[in-house]
Amino acid sequence: MTVEQVERDWFENVMVPCYSPMEMIPVRGVGSTVWDQAGNEYIDFAGGIAVSCLGHCHPVMVNALTEQANQLWHLSNVMTNEPALRLAKRLTQLSFADKVFFANSGAEANEAALKLARRVAAERFGAQKSEIIAFDQGFHGRTFFTVTVGGQAAYSDGFGPKPGDITHLPYNDIEALRAQISPRTCAVMIEPLQGEGGVVPPTEAFIQAVRDLCDEFDALLIFDEVQTGNGRTGAFYAYQNLPVVPDILTTAKSLGGGFPIGAMLTTDPLAQFMKVGTHGSTYGGNPLACAVALAVVNEIAKPDTLAGVKQREAQFREGLLAINQRYPIFSEIRGQGLLLGAVLNDAWQGRARDILVAAGNEGLLVLVAGANVVRFTPSLVISEQEIVQGLACLERAIASLYR
């Protein structure tokens, strides 16, 4: 049977138009290199938006998926399975958590976290304790609840009445938080390093104040580590680089290395409030997903892998600063590990997407974080040579725009 050639214009014909993908279509990937239909080569500094933590087709992932695919694909939450139990046990070993709930995405993990926080507050203190505090420019997913908690109106407006009792405050503003938090607050949800909002790190004083105020007002602290987790910052979870520990943590993206899976992690005292029937997921804890994720987690958790993230961060920073000396367009490089943002200076405001497009034309895949930040979230095991190649592509792209 002849297989019909896929054309890029199919996207406009058959896909809901909520994305604006590049013109090329990737068909194969190895490590941090991908090839399109025409055989053109690209270095991948985007990593599937911080998902492809081991690059493309890493042997430990391929082997785990193949082995599990020949054993058991799906059951349901009517029963448990070995890969799910192994993965849950491993995640508790690597974190503060005692209990794990599996979902299919970061948004679903965050939905579970928010529902747990509301349930705990209602049962412990009463229905009046329902306020959720989150932060401007935060991002927590695309379900109606999580997109409302995320602090970007462009993503949540236009869909009718929003879930209520959600307050947004400026990130890194201790006084604003101190003025708002009260006995009505049930939870504070925060990214320990804002990703979509511009790769913005918290000050140590701010994150400590968030923890202290949550304790003072019996509010739960939820860390959204969907983008920062699983080795992305050089620690297995970003909170491990900070002086505080959350009550609930959410994780996805790099957790499966490209296979869809998310998880909510919490403690024994809080987990007991999610009684049988209060929450669930048909696919959550799927044996295929959990088998792949366990292989990914074990690879990331190796000391050499985590140390390598810091080494690669240093190489990225050095290379970006060198480019900036020749073509000064960045005001600063911020972030941690391999979640880095190159912030455009005043003369280049609003041109992050121009750089993304120009980079693609030069054979490099990058991301943006808003209109003024070029974002890099490559594989955690990207080779030194691939970084060199990618930075050379980036310099050519910037040079073309600079001229």
TrEMBL record:
<keyword id="KW-0028">Amino-acid biosynthesis</keyword>
<comment type="subunit">
    <text>Homodimer.</text>
</comment>
<dbReference type="GO" id="GO:0003992">
    <property type="term" value="F:N2-acetyl-L-ornithine:2-oxoglutarate 5-aminotransferase activity"/>
</dbReference>
<dbReference type="GO" id="GO:0030170">
    <property type="term" value="F:pyridoxal phosphate binding"/>
</dbReference>
<dbReference type="InterPro" id="IPR017652">
    <property type="entry name" value="Ac/SucOrn_transaminase_bac"/>
</dbReference>
<dbReference type="GO" id="GO:0042802">
    <property type="term" value="F:identical protein binding"/>
</dbReference>
<feature type="binding site">
    <location>
        <position position="139"/>
    </location>
    <ligand>
        <name>pyridoxal 5'-phosphate</name>
    </ligand>
</feature>
<feature type="modified residue" description="N6-(pyridoxal phosphate)lysine">
    <location>
        <position position="253"/>
    </location>
</feature>
<keyword id="KW-0963">Cytoplasm</keyword>
<feature type="binding site">
    <location>
        <position position="142"/>
    </location>
    <ligand>
        <name>N(2)-acetyl-L-ornithine</name>
    </ligand>
</feature>
<feature type="binding site">
    <location>
        <position position="281"/>
    </location>
    <ligand>
        <name>N(2)-acetyl-L-ornithine</name>
    </ligand>
</feature>
<keyword id="KW-0808">Transferase</keyword>
<dbReference type="InterPro" id="IPR049704">
    <property type="entry name" value="Aminotrans_3_PPA_site"/>
</dbReference>
<dbReference type="InterPro" id="IPR015424">
    <property type="entry name" value="PyrdxlP-dep_Trfase"/>
</dbReference>
<dbReference type="GO" id="GO:0005737">
    <property type="term" value="C:cytoplasm"/>
</dbReference>
<comment type="similarity">
    <text>Belongs to the class-III pyridoxal-phosphate-dependent aminotransferase family. ArgD subfamily.</text>
</comment>
<dbReference type="InterPro" id="IPR015421">
    <property type="entry name" value="PyrdxlP-dep_Trfase_major"/>
</dbReference>
<keyword id="KW-0663">Pyridoxal phosphate</keyword>
<dbReference type="InterPro" id="IPR015422">
    <property type="entry name" value="PyrdxlP-dep_Trfase_small"/>
</dbReference>
<protein>
    <recommendedName>
        <fullName>Acetylornithine aminotransferase</fullName>
        <ecNumber>2.6.1.11</ecNumber>
    </recommendedName>
</protein>
<dbReference type="GO" id="GO:0006526">
    <property type="term" value="P:L-arginine biosynthetic process"/>
</dbReference>
<dbReference type="InterPro" id="IPR050103">
    <property type="entry name" value="Class-III_PLP-dep_AT"/>
</dbReference>
<comment type="pathway">
    <text>Amino-acid biosynthesis; L-arginine biosynthesis; N(2)-acetyl-L-ornithine from L-glutamate: step 4/4.</text>
</comment>
<keyword id="KW-0032">Aminotransferase</keyword>
<dbReference type="InterPro" id="IPR005814">
    <property type="entry name" value="Aminotrans_3"/>
</dbReference>
<dbReference type="Pfam" id="PF00202">
    <property type="entry name" value="Aminotran_3"/>
</dbReference>
<feature type="binding site">
    <location>
        <begin position="224"/>
        <end position="227"/>
    </location>
    <ligand>
        <name>pyridoxal 5'-phosphate</name>
    </ligand>
</feature>
<feature type="binding site">
    <location>
        <position position="282"/>
    </location>
    <ligand>
        <name>pyridoxal 5'-phosphate</name>
    </ligand>
</feature>
<dbReference type="InterPro" id="IPR004636">
    <property type="entry name" value="AcOrn/SuccOrn_fam"/>
</dbReference>
<keyword id="KW-0055">Arginine biosynthesis</keyword>
<feature type="binding site">
    <location>
        <begin position="106"/>
        <end position="107"/>
    </location>
    <ligand>
        <name>pyridoxal 5'-phosphate</name>
    </ligand>
</feature>
